[in-house]
Amino acid sequence: MEVNEVVIVIIGGTLIMLILMIFIISFFFIHSRRQQAHKLEKAAMEATFNEEILTAKNEVQENTMKHIARELHDNIGQLLSLVKIQLNNIDEENPGLKRVTDSREYLNKALTDLRSLSKTLNSENILQAGLVKAIAFELERLEKTGFVETSFENQCSLVNIEPKISIIVFRIFQEMVQNVIKHANAKKLSVSLYQNTEVYTLELTDDGQGFEVEKKFRSNGFQSGSGLANLKNRAELINGKLDIASTPGQGTTLKLSIPINRPINHDESSPG
Amino acid sequence: MLSHITEVKFALIYQLVLYGSMVAGILFRKSIFPSSRYIFYLILITSVVETIGLFSLKLYDKPASVIYDFFQPIELILIGLYFLGKYQEQVNKVLSKVLVGIGILFLIAYHIIREFYELKAYYDFLIVAFIVSILSILFLIEVLRYHLDKELLKYEVFWISTGILVFHAGSFVLMGTVVYVYLLNPKLASQLYSINHLLNIIYYSLITYAFYIQWKSTKSSSSSLEGH
């Protein structure tokens, strides 16, 4: 009997420990599986959320730009045209006044710039002209400002990109150009568009002061590199990729890859 | 003789583990989260009750059953309050209140009726074990729903709940078995009951571990704050 009790305790204890172990291991297993699923779900939700935010931002930006373009064209453009008529009248009444002639020249230039700016701001114009022409037009406009000397080489015979994506690509391009003007201190900007098997690549190379890419993304917190990060995010939004190569003192190259095998709208784009 | 020694040994180990848990609770009391304090109070009360029970057994050679009658509702209330503070789902909160309420009413009625009629002393034990097991199962299900961001090894509530479940569900099954075996072989039934000490040892060991990880996490978070 006495031995019996020891045996009972041993068997009972072993059983309890076994059940406890099975319970804990099973619980850990189920918990970790659910945890993985939860993490994946959370990451997917975050990605969708970020994508939606970015899309909304783009839409807001497009609407704002369209509004500004319309204001520039319809209101300010009209006002300047009225001023031009007034100047013409003055010129007819008092011919040969140098101040009037000069003013009319400046005014003509302002009107041309204003119309160009209005065109690049309005996404409908971009869609109408096509991505290649829009890029060429933007570079031409930039060249006229005298900030930087530009060149554009288009190696694609036909660019087939969905219109919505075309606009995003063009806005990314505009922002990259803005970055060159604001930060690069460059004299030359070369742009090329070429096609590989799976992607179109839009490449911008400047001869500016360059920067340390890693350092730019890593250092000094909130603002630093946020413009570039934003560009990268926008590139990801169209399933694209933005590669940045830069060395201090040796300029910068930005490569935007745009996948070809996206849903394509057939009315897009014309050869450059 | 050996039977008696085994019984005493297990009872002694259980007492030591219980006191160890109490000492750990006292040492780490500042780091115990508010709702986990109910478990600390439960251990303090259990230690007192078990000490009185032990002395009663030694001095008068019979268990202090009156003390245990008072202890059972207190245990049920403290565990109920503990889980009430941990549940996320409103249904579980209501259910825990209802179950504990029913349990308390049952215990009071049972103890009163027992004064007049001869009732077996294990029904109260079984009902408490059953209710507490349900409460801990409800919480563990919530862990799989709402606490997926937690690392279980460092999640003290999981270990406390596991301890509670193992002890009470184990006791429920054990008591049922003992009652059944008692009808066939009373001696074997009393031998079987010594397994209860093992369950107690596991229960209080897990609670001690939970107190320890709670203290450790509080310590590491406060030292990281100091670092800043």
Q: What's the quick description here?
A:
Chain A: Keywords: 4Fe-4S, ATP-binding, Cytoplasm, Iron, Iron-sulfur, Kinase, Membrane, Metal-binding, Nucleotide-binding, Phosphoprotein, Transferase, Transmembrane, Transmembrane helix, Two-component regulatory system. Chain A is α+β, with helices and mostly antiparallel strands and 272 residues long.
Molecular structure report:
Chain A is of the alpha+beta class. Chain A has a domain at 143-272: Histidine kinase-like ATPase, C-terminal domain (Heat Shock Protein 90, 2-Layer Sandwich). Chain A has helices spanning 2-93, 98-121, 123-129, 131-145, 163-184, 213-218, 226-237; strands at 149-154, 188-195, 199-206, 241-246, 252-259. With 228 residues, chain B is mainly α. Chain B has one domain (2-28, 35-214). Chain B contains eight helices and no strands. The chains are: A alpha+beta (272), B mainly alpha (228). Chains A and B meet through helix 1 of A and helix 1, helix 5, helix 6, helix 7 and helix 8 of B. Chain B: The chain crosses the membrane at residues 12-28, 40-60, 66-85, 94-113, 125-145, 157-183, 195-213. Chain B: Keywords: Membrane, Transmembrane, Transmembrane helix.
SSE arrangement of chain B, N to C: HHHHHHHH
Task: Please tell me how large the radius of gyration of chain B is.
Answer: 19 Å
Query: N-to-C SSE series of chain A?
Result: HHHHEHEEHHEE
CATH class term of the domain at 143-272 in chain A: Alpha Beta
The CATH architecture category of the domain at 143-272 in chain A equals 2-Layer Sandwich
Biggest interface found: A-B, 23 and 27 residues
The CATH topology annotation of the domain at 143-272 in chain A reads as Heat Shock Protein 90
Low-confidence stretches of chain B: none
* Global morphology of chain A: elongated
Quaternary: heterodimer
What is the tally of helical segments of chain A? 7
Q: What is the CATH H-level superfamily of the domain at 143-272 in chain A?
A: Histidine kinase-like ATPase, C-terminal domain
Shape of chain B: globular
Give, in spatial order, the strands making up the sheet with the most strands of chain A.
1-2-3-5-4
Strand content of chain A: 5-15%
What's the pLDDT, averaged over the residues of chain B? 86
Strand content of chain B: under 5%
* Fraction in helix of chain A: 55-70%
Helix content of chain B: over 70%
Rg from Cα of chain A: 30 Å
**Annotation, overall tally of beta strands of chain B:** 0
